[in-house]
From TrEMBL:
<keyword id="KW-0862">Zinc</keyword>
<dbReference type="InterPro" id="IPR036866">
    <property type="entry name" value="RibonucZ/Hydroxyglut_hydro"/>
</dbReference>
<dbReference type="InterPro" id="IPR042173">
    <property type="entry name" value="RNase_J_2"/>
</dbReference>
<keyword id="KW-0378">Hydrolase</keyword>
<dbReference type="GO" id="GO:0003723">
    <property type="term" value="F:RNA binding"/>
</dbReference>
<keyword id="KW-0479">Metal-binding</keyword>
<dbReference type="InterPro" id="IPR041636">
    <property type="entry name" value="RNase_J_C"/>
</dbReference>
<keyword id="KW-0269">Exonuclease</keyword>
<keyword id="KW-0540">Nuclease</keyword>
<dbReference type="Pfam" id="PF07521">
    <property type="entry name" value="RMMBL"/>
</dbReference>
<dbReference type="InterPro" id="IPR055132">
    <property type="entry name" value="RNase_J_b_CASP"/>
</dbReference>
<dbReference type="Pfam" id="PF17770">
    <property type="entry name" value="RNase_J_C"/>
</dbReference>
<feature type="domain" description="Metallo-beta-lactamase">
    <location>
        <begin position="21"/>
        <end position="219"/>
    </location>
</feature>
<protein>
    <submittedName>
        <fullName>MBL fold metallo-hydrolase</fullName>
    </submittedName>
</protein>
<dbReference type="Pfam" id="PF00753">
    <property type="entry name" value="Lactamase_B"/>
</dbReference>
<dbReference type="Pfam" id="PF22505">
    <property type="entry name" value="RNase_J_b_CASP"/>
</dbReference>
<dbReference type="InterPro" id="IPR004613">
    <property type="entry name" value="RNase_J"/>
</dbReference>
Amino acid sequence: MAKPDELVFAPLGGVGEIGMNLSIYGLGNRQQRSWLAVDLGVSFGDEEHLPGIDLIMPDISFLEKERKNLMGLVLTHAHEDHFGAIIDLWPRLKCPIYATQFSAALFEAKCAAERNAPKIPVTVVPSGGRVDIGPFNVEFIPVAHSIPEAHALAIHTEAGIVLHTGDWKIDPTPTLGKPTDEKRLRELGEEGVLALIGDSTNAVRDGRSPSEAEVAQTIINLVKSAKGRVAVTTFASNVARIKAVADAAKAADREVVVVGRAMERVVQVARETGFLDGVQNFRSPEVYGHLPQDKVLALCTGSQGESRAALARIANDDHPEITLNRGDSVIFSSRTIPGNEKAVGAIVNNLVLQGVEVITDRDHLVHVSGHPRRDELRDMISWVKPQLLIPVHGEALHLNEHAKLARAAGVPRVLVVRNGDLVKLGPGDPGVVGEVPSGRLYKDGNILEDSKSRAVTERRRMAFSGCAFVAFAMNAQGELADDPEVDLVGIPEKNKAGEPFDDIVFDAVVATVEGLPKARRRDPDALAESVRRAVRSVINEHWGKKPPCLVHVLTV
């Protein structure tokens, strides 16, 4: 009798970290499996540790190798950390993509805004609908989140049902879209769920996430009581928040001016897909200066301190159309993503220095998370009754707290895994049965590099200690043909004694060349290495840092 197909799961991103989500499910045996990918997202570079890196993406080398067995890629929702890597990585996979209408439309708009984006077809599945993708039958179950049409995926297979929650929360009064479908989740629990692969972002927070309706009311109160101009910044993808801001502006008899390309794009897609039906038309930035101060509200990008986004330019007073003055207000209807605190803080300080009142979620309920707190996690477990729970979408602390909560809630098996772990879900006892290649790709300008990239490592070293460039020419007799050229970048001009570093390095180069035996001087590679070592050593002696040193030897 043939052995039943084995169902496996492997996270390739988004476990032990928040961002860069990519999960894969395999059905078959060790020799031959069909694969289903869920989400393909990015996380963002950190200038301090990864200078010049714009985006970080999951390493998809395993899926490239398995390309002929990759049945499709399914999107839970259209946040960058879940779909931001598709344009760059899809050409390596060329698999079918499945998403609901809003996600597909936002992706199409993103492709249209990107230069030379490949043509990437997306199959639209209705919210609540089901689609066969190879041996997987995937059901899109509506869940509340901070973007329209977020879905948990019930992946139906011969080996059992897996519920991949994606990002979700329980919001009984969402201002837009459907609430989390408790009825359908309870039905799945009655059918029997093999495994729950669940969002852990807020597993350290007690209670329940407040509702979007409460935020909407707070924003109405704040905008109504404002005296001067008002600017609101939020995540561009949060259409419910955009609608709440529009309703607040209407209640206060203000026009909404949309500022920032990302915000304009989402507003356009939300109107096309019906999520802003009945909401007044917004105005373009050109009219901002012509409206009375108490009749305008600027809806801006830049809640995360992005240097090129609208709010940073407004705070630096270099936006061509939008200005703020003493007595005006800025509402940050967002939370600061870890790593962005400095950039956001700089904007807040610049606004305060201009006399602008800054309102954040520290003062008022102007933002709520789109992720479940501990009581909501318990609800999901009680509805779905999984045999196995695997926490994902979180750092180590979040995963461990989610795991402890699941054990206390009576889940029979709980596994904490890492990116690259291959987990057998069933049939039989679940557990880690192997490893698949995983890692990171860096988007450096328009080039994709792996995380061992020499360019990134060297740039980090240069950011810390500058760089020394030395060039000189040697004649046939093994003598210096002319004075060496020395160029020091990012290195102090003088040492503690006030001696110029240019002179110190120049003397070290000459002394090193002249101190070498003739035979070694006639070997350009050996000569360059000797000079490189000497330059780094003398700079370290006078400065305490060893910069990279590039030596160019000419023979004449």
